[in-house]
Each structure stands twice: as structure tokens, then as C-alpha cells.
Amino acid sequence: MVIDITDILYKEGASMEIDLLIPMEQIRLLDKRIHVSEPIKIKGTLINENISRLYFEGQAIITIQAPCDRCLRLTNKQIKIPMKKFFTQQLIVEKENDEEIYPIKEHTIDLLPPIMDEVLLHTPMKIVCSEKCKGLCTHCGSNLNITQCNCSENEIDPRFESLKSLFSKDKEV
Ligand SMILES: [Zn+2]
Ligand SMILES: [Zn+2]
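^ thats the input. predicted complex w/ zinc ion below
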């Protein structure tokens, strides 16, 4: 996602609006269960702070798709990521306040590396189709959002047996 910044590169205080879509094919996530299901929307402003430094301030909107952690239904989640990213013409790029600074190369910047860094940082480990999702029965595999199986009433996971007695004790008090 290379952007030509010739127009603002030598004008201190100059800015340009950024409003673009990054094709989802360009994004690869480490977790193979999760993939990007819509183009990433990037919107914001690129500002020339001084002769050697620019920054992009705006947001990225990413939609990811993954199986629900409880019932396995494919679920889309939209994540809004606020961004402020610096770019520099200096040959030696140093980290500043632990913040990565990205290079300006021949009047262009590449927005993809900072966006990828943010996406990796903000991708959740797990997503659920709904906070109320009941998940799958651990005995018969029925989707408890759709059907009510009989296992849950008859069998109790031994790990919960002690909890159950705790609760019934509470009630007696
Ligand atoms: Zn679910
Ligand atoms: Zn069941």
C-alpha cells in the first residue's frame, strides 16, 4: 500500500487525506483459524510535522472471520483500530518511546507494515458469535443455541460436582 507523498514532503504543516481500502489478500494472519473477510478500510490524515518527519493519524477498520469459540459458527467481528504512526527520511530509524518509526523511501511511504503491526496487536485470541452463546454440549455435541439435549440434566461433569454441593450449601444458609 505505497503512497506517493511528493505533494507534502517538503512543506512543513502540509497534509493529505487518506481514504483507501487494502485488499484482504494482502493480509496474512498468524492464526490460521482467523482470516480477514473484508478489505481493510484506512481513513485519516497524513501530516508533515517537519522536513524529516511525517505522521499518519486516523483509523483502520478490519473485519475478521473465525469460528465461534463456543459453538464453532463462523462469525464476523469488526475491529476499529486508532492509529498514529510516524515516518521518517532519516537513514537510521530509531525507536522512540518504544514506538516503531517507519521509513520514507523516494517520496513514498508504505502504510501496510504499520497497519499489519496494529492488526496483529489487536486481533483477539478468541471470538464468540454472541456473549449469550451457549456453545456445544460436551457430551453429544448438540448446538445448545438450537436444541436442548438431555445430557445436561442427567449427567454432570465431575469437575462441577463439587461446585454443585457448594451452591446447595449456600442455599441452606
Ligand atoms: Zn457461538
Ligand atoms: Zn448433549
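Residues 2-122 form one domain.
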